[in-house]
Design brief:
The protein is an alpha/beta fold. The protein is built from 15 helices and ten strands. It has a ten-stranded mixed β-sheet. Helix 9 crosses helix 15. It is globular. It binds iron/sulfur cluster (2 copies). One iron/sulfur cluster (SF4) binds next to helix 13 and helix 15. The site of one iron/sulfur cluster (SF4) has 13 residues, from helix 13 and helix 15.
């Protein structure tokens, strides 16, 4: 038996009221293949029995799913720790009250891709900054401790410090940081958001430095494609797609060769326990004799696949930064 995953992400719906240009799952319309309420309850029972640390509900926009409150109520009843990632634009006083009544310690992530309307709305659409900030303020006012979800791209990386200061000014103490990877709608918008390897090196280095400067004031949850730690895909992480297919990381949602199984056919636990990440992600050739292999593992497998063509390629910016300095670490990242 393998160790259970730490976090299982689940696309509860592909419906979304926004059309963000980086959206990895091209959300917009609800999919006819989405799991039903009872299928999701079965999945939650299975994950609870397996011992996952948290069930991360993503979308699309989870608040558009009509059974969201029933499902949160169920998760609370079986004592399953839940996180929910929302674009924040649909959060009203009424929504906050319902969430507080049902799941008062719900971990809520709200996406913001810039510290000002111009930078954020370039990715997420006109008016989305004001609405998301309003949603965050409603949440903090009612006692939630939301996390701002920030995806680093070509247009926003220089504003990362402003992003932190904006978050602090609206009562947010936690930021999750991820890196743009061209998948889904991100493929057609790649020119606008992606960078050369050299620019990514500069951007990642800058973001790391800023996080170091603020590590006593903020908690950072940082994707390994920025920290340079070994990729968690299929090791401590898995994603369940809206259609029930399980993939090691959501960035492989369109690549059938990475499908691990479907929860409609067998329980997640069975799929997880028969999966061997080493089979899917062999160590890249140049890493085999590298002194940093254990600490690094070759970088982000999704970056390797979607930027360089296959998972046995190196994530070049991460490799370069690791070889430059092997001592990047934050006190308080999750
Ligand atoms: S530093 Fe480079 S060569 Fe070494 S393990 Fe990491 S990615 Fe591979
Ligand atoms: S493939 Fe990349 S984004 Fe996915 S878990 Fe690994 S490091 Fe993170």
């Amino acid at each position: 038996m393998r160790n259970p995953p730490k976090i299982v992400e689940f696309e509860i719906t592909l419906a979304c009221n926004l059309r963000c240009i980086h959206c990895y799952c091209e959300a917009g319309q609800r999919s006819p293949f989405e799991l039903s309420t009872s299928e999701i309850k079965n999945l939650m029972d299975d994950l609870k029995a397996l011992g996952v640390w948290a069930f991360d509900i993503v979308g699309g926009e989870p608040l558009l799913r009509s059974d969201i409150y029933e499902l949160l109520e169920y998760a609370k009843r079986i004592d399953l720790r839940v996180m929910i990632n929302t674009n924040g634009t649909l959060i009203s006083e009424d929504v906050v009250k319902k969430l507080r009544d049902i799941y008062p310690d719900l971990m809520i992530g709200i996406s913001l891709d810039g510290p000002d309307p111009e930078t954020n709305d370039f990715v997420r659409g006109k008016g989305s900054f004001e609405k998301a900030v309003r949603g965050i303020k409603l949440l903090t006012k009612s006692g939630f401790d939301p996390v701002v979800l920030n995806v680093i791209n070509k247009r926003n990386w220089r504003k990362f410090e402003d992003m932190i200061n904006l978050a602090r000014s609206i009562g947010v103490k936690k930021i999750y940081v991820d890196r743009f990877i061209p998948v889904g709608r991100g493929v057609v918008n790649r020119e606008k958001l992606d960078m050369s390897d050299l620019d990514w090196i500069e951007a990642i280095r800058h973001v790391r430095e800023v996080m170091k400067n603020y590590e006593n004031d903020m908690t950072f949850y940082v994707e390994e494609n920025i920290t340079g730690d070994p990729c968690s895909a299929g090791v401590t992480h898995a994603s369940v797609l809206a259609s029930g297919w399980v993939v090691p990381c959501g960035h492989f949602r369109y690549n059938r060769e990475f499908y691990m199984g479907n929860v409609r056919e067998k329980p997640f636990s069975e799929i997880w326990n028969s999966f061997d990440p080493a089979e899917y992600f062999p160590t890249p050739g140049p890493c085999k004799s590298c002194e940093f292999l254990k600490a690094c593992g070759g970088g982000c497998k999704a970056v390797a696949y979607h930027r360089y063509g296959n998972v046995e390629k190196l994530d070049i910016p991460i490799c370069y930064l690791r070889k430059q300095s092997n001592d990047f670490h934050l006190k308080n990242w999750g």
